[in-house]
Structure formats: structure tokens, C-alpha cells
Design goal:
Blueprint lengths: L1 H30 L9 H25 L12 H21 L11 H8 L2 H12 L2
Helix pairs in contact: 4-5
Length: about 130
């Protein structure tokens, strides 16, 4: 009788373990669809060719845009336009900084010019003309 009870307990344990096993197998089978498939040699070569083509295309676009000096910082096609804008802005700032800036040059109006000459008639006519503007 004890042996019978022991066999029943073992069968019961096996049945529970079998049910859990089946549930795990079903879950695994469901998750297997998301596992990336192994690429064939042809697919790997095609992917490498695509990547090489994209890299060459990017290098050509960089060269065409005149940004060869910044090629190491550009990794996408979209970044080319951003770099062009940035380079243009930097270039404009440098030009502005390096341009001639007179130190002692003052704007002179007509009144000042007449005052330097000592022409009072011109000074008065300029003042009157400014009143009616």
C-alpha cells in the first residue's frame, strides 16, 4: 500500500511538472518568433555592400558641400545641412570681426559741415529745413 501511495505521489508530481513544462514550451515557441534569424552569407554580403554604398554616398555629399574638413564629425546626411549653416555663421562672424572698424570716424551732418566752414547762412538754413521735416 505504501508503494502504491508513493507511485501516486510520483505520478502527481510528474503531471504537474509536465503541465508547467508544456506552458514553458508554449511560451518559448511564442517568443521564438522575435528571435533574429541568422543571415546567410549572401544576405551578409548584400548588407555590407549597402553599408559601403551609403558611406560612399555620404562622403560624396560631404565633399560636394565643401565640408571635407568636418567629415569626421558628420555621420548622417541630415547633419550636412546643419554643418553648412554652422560654418556659414562662423564665417560671417569671422568676416565681421576682421572687417575695418574706424576708431575716430564720426558721422557728420550738414549742420556740422557748415559749422566747420563758418557758414552761418548754411547753418541757419539747415536748422530751418530740419524744423519742417
Amino acid at each position: 500500500m505504501e508503494e502504491n501511495n508513493q507511485q501516486l505521489q510520483e505520478e502527481h508530481v510528474e503531471t504537474v511538472a509536465k503541465a508547467e513544462y508544456d506552458a514553458l514550451v508554449a511560451e518559448r515557441d511564442e517568443l521564438l518568433q522575435y528571435k533574429p534569424k541568422k543571415l546567410t552569407d549572401e544576405e551578409v554580403k548584400a548588407q555590407q555592400d549597402r553599408e559601403a554604398f551609403e558611406k560612399e554616398k555620404l562622403e560624396f555629399a560631404i565633399e560636394k558641400a565643401g565640408l571635407s574638413d568636418f567629415a569626421e564629425f558628420i555621420s548622417k546626411q541630415d547633419e550636412i545641412e546643419a554643418f553648412q549653416g554652422l560654418v556659414k555663421k562662423i564665417e560671417d562672424n569671422v568676416k565681421k570681426e576682421l572687417s575695418y572698424k574706424p576708431q575716430s570716424h564720426k558721422q557728420t551732418d550738414e549742420y556740422s559741415q557748415f559749422a566747420q566752414k563758418g557758414d552761418t547762412k548754411g547753418m541757419i538754413s539747415t536748422k530751418l529745413a530740419n524744423l519742417f521735416k
